[in-house]
Amino acid sequence: MLTVRGKSAVIAAVFLLFLVIAYFLGAVVQPSGMISSPHSDVSAYISRIWFLERASFSDYGQIPLWNPYSLFGNSLVGSNVSWLFYPFNLLHLFSTSPFIETIVFIAHFFMLGIFTFLFVRKISGSRTAGIFSAVAMAFSGRVLLLPYNGHVFFLGIAYLPLFFYLTELLLEKKRLSFAILLGLALTLQFLSTHIQLVFYSLFALAIYWLFRLFSQPDKKSLRKHSILLLSSLAIFSLLSAFQLLPILETAGISDRGSSDMSFSSSYTFSPASIPTAILPNLLGTPLHETEFGPPNYWEQNAYFGIAVLILAFLAALYARNRHVAFFSFLLIFSFIFAFGPFQNLPVFSLFRIPSRMLFIGAFAVSVLCGYGAFVLQKSSIKRVKSALLLPAALLILLAATICFSAMQENVISYLDSSISERQSSGQISEEKAEHYLSKVPIIYSDIRTDLIRATIFLALSSFAIFAILKSKGGNKSLFLLFLLILVIADLWSFGQPFFGVESPDDVFAQDELIEYLKNDESRFRVIDFSGLSPIYLTAAARQGIVIISYESQNLQSAVRYMGVALGKEKEERSYNIETSITEEGIENPSLINILNAKYIIAEEHPEKFTAQLVAASGERKLYKNLGSSGEAFVAYQVEALADQESVLDELSDNEADYSRLVLVEASAEKLPEVEQGKSNVTVAKKTPNEIVIDVNSTTPGFLFLSEAYAPGWKAAISGSKARIYRANSAFMGVFIPAGQHSVSFTYFPSAFSAGILISAAALAVILTFAICRLFLLRKRLPRN
Q1: Residues 6 or more apart from 341 whose CB is under 8 A from it?
Q2: Which residue, 351, 376, 523, is CA-closest to 462?
Q3: How far apart are CA 759 and CA 576, in angstroms?
Q4: Are 458 and 395 in contact (CB under 8 A)?
Q5: Which CA distances in Å does 671 have to 138, 343, 629, 701?
Q6: How many Cβ atoms sit within 10 Å of the Cβ of residue 184?
Q7: Is 358 in contact with 302 (CB distance < 8 Å)?
């Protein structure tokens, strides 16, 4: 039989699951459609990885460890956004159905809600507080924007309230089993999300842990609690080692590892965005292409809900509770952090977009919201006198709405001047300024709609709060239910316009260029000089076509090589997420030809290349690059240089044909001899983790492979282990003897191998502990 608390948890779970399914109903009734938007990372980037996973598993029975879509390749197992081994992501190995994405969203929104309910009910002792907090968190404005921007890897926020809940149980029960559960929860979040969110979650949890430890009357348990927490962190580190070690290895050679302050402080939360807590479209909206304010609407928006903020305010004033004090502090801290003052500190500087700390702020607001509902449930109007301020706030907001409507011409004039000032100060381009100026009437209309909406929800919330405070018994419960419905309606009215479902065929529409390319069964890359959209690149990738492009994380050596190939100055060979590939700066076409760039997409004939027009789609044309060196070739001229910087300088200054000459990094050692000869090279096999090349050379030479050099690649010549050399700064190759040989390149990082052993051993110990624990409990049952 379920206990009373157990029954309340089941009821809450059913209620929350119903709400989440109702919110995503548009996707549920269209299982063949995908949740998408013009700004979705799922459409632009992540679908490429899902396609790669499915193709690799179905064709070769492998989970791909290498990503061919990032410039000339990058570690997928070492990526901090691949969520490669997360259980939900493994569904993509077996199906390409877009309904998997819907399942993932529903599951994580539900998890976020139920874990919040359990935590808040635990610390407050109130089901009402738990339900209000669960709804406020699961449908927070920050969270509801996730399906729109396609940041599925940020669904790891679902585990945050679970961390706090397990921490409470750990402090109460003082058992190792709860330390293990906390370690498992941390591991699941790590596998599911961007490492930035893991770090922020651990940071928030550490603050909470200190708060709970030092607020306990029993100081004698301090040591035991600390040991249990450290045990949780150790379990997390060991269980996640198979993913953590490759990420740490790749971080050292990633362009993110060399980021400067301008990178780490990008997309800080702007003070101008604070009013979006009440008027979410004050600075424009991507729905109408009017975001004239700070970039990235979803990173700048702070909409938590009108009723939610009122309840949080009441909690901060009247709930005499240490948890309320802590989460009030955490909310304020999250906003201060989002402004970016900590971005020059170690570890923090590794991540850009500090405004993502507002996910932690959203959790703090939701907890306070629950306590606010609890205050209303247990109080009367005599105690909660500040509720009398609500009519005053309503009158002010109503007056502001009326004045805003009456002063339309003045407001539009002010918006015009604001946009012009942003353009003159260099914050937006002239082209964007003209676009936003043409949209000023729409911006005005959206702000007025926000004001009306805020006024309505403030009025209804005020009515509900006064009714609750003046009621008793069943009537109070009815008005609490009405207030809960207001919270849901408020948040859904904000989030639903951002929710859309489209057919994958429409999202990833194919044009004549893709139709032509997918009929070429050879292995090749495409270089784009026309500025294709990321969604187009994904549409091509779904057909197995690799178009060279920058990802959010690239190998630093690959980025620097492209800087040289595109004719950039030495100080400009660094990562820039806005980098576009153009023909203009190219001085030595052979630096592009050795990329296996068999095709070129451009709006005009690429004059620096020997190219033949083969297809066209609108203004874009597809050219066959007749100078492409193919995926691999044998070079008979090899020059050794001391380090990577020397190689880059030589590549930049030298106009040699690099399909004949290869520069390798080798300090004082003697290289194997090469002689001028002839060769025949065929790629016999290529999977995401392995490349096999059949080569027949009349003399000793150097086999060059146009795949990025990275730790984890191993080579063998006719079964014998061979050393891989870094070639032309960013690529790899091996010296081969004369004759016919099969050369294999296999990607399986040592860090991954070691991590698997560590994680497997840790899992075995945990399972042994669990079995022994169950055995002992079962043995005790008859006596009890």
Answers
A1: none
A2: 376
A3: 35
A4: no
A5: 61, 45, 24, 11
A6: 18
A7: yes
pLDDT, tens only, 584-594: 878 889 999 99
Q: Which two tokens stand for residue 204?
A: 């928030």
Tens digits of per-residue pLDDT, 365-387? 999 999 999 999 987 656 666 66
* Tens-digit pLDDT profile for residues 415-467: 999 888 888 888 888 888 899 999 999 999 999 999 999 999 999 999 999 88
Per-residue pLDDT band at 268 (split at 50, 70, 90)? confident
Q: Among candidates 604, 589, 609, 540, which has minimal Cα distance to 548?
A: 540
Count of residues in the chain: 784
**Mean pLDDT of the chain, nearest integer:** 89
Per-residue confidence (pLDDT) for residue 265, from 0 to 100: 57
What sections of 174-194 are H helices per DSSP?
176-192
Question: Binning pLDDT at 50, 70 and 90, where does residue 784 land?
Answer: very low
> What is the DSSP pairing of strand 632-635 with strand 637-641?
unpaired
- What is the C-alpha to C-alpha distance for residues 71 and 510, in angstroms, rounded to an integer? 22
Whether the Cβ atoms of residue 610 and residue 636 lie closer than 8 Å to each other: no
Pull the structure tokens for residue 120: 């808040």
Burial 29-63, CB ≥16 within 10 A → b, else e: ebeebbbbbebbbbbbbbbbbbbbbbbbbeeeeeb
pLDDT above 50 for 484: yes
Residue-range domain boundaries for the chain? 4-378+471-501, 394-470, 508-625, 632-748
Element housing 504 (H / E): helix 504-507
Helices (H), 407-503: 408-424, 430-438, 440-470, 474-495
Report the pLDDT value the prediction gives residue 204, as an integer from 0 to 100.
95
DSSP 425: T
pLDDT of residue 382: 63
Q: With 70 as the cut, is the pLDDT of residue 727 above it?
A: yes
Rounded Cα gap, residues 547 and 71, in angstroms: 8
CA–CA gap between residue 567 and residue 588 (Å, rounded): 9
The answer to whether 299 and 273 have CB atoms below 8 angstroms apart is no
Residue 556's contacts (CB-CB under 8 Å, 6 or more residues apart) are: 253, 254, 255, 257, 258, 575
Angle, in degrees to the nearest 10, between helices 644-653 and 556-565:
20
Cβ neighbours of 218 (radius 10 Å)? 8
The answer to whether residue 631 scores a pLDDT higher than 70 is yes
pLDDT 10s digits, 662-689: 999 887 678 888 999 999 999 999 999 9
The per-residue pLDDT for range 736-758, each reduced to its tens digit, is 999 999 999 999 999 999 999 99
* Gap between the Cα atoms of 179 and 413, Å rounded: 60
* Angstrom distance (rounded) from CA 640 to CA 556: 21
Report the distance separating Cα 199 and Cα 345, nearest Å: 14
d(CA 541, CA 580): 19
Please, are residues 694 and 723 in contact by the beta-carbon 8 Å criterion?
Answer: no
Report the alpha-carbon distance of residue 494 to residue 281 in Å, rounded: 10
3-class DSSP string for 582-639? CCCCCCCCHHHHCCCEEEEEECCCCCCCCEEEEEEECCEEEEEECCCCCCEEEECEEE
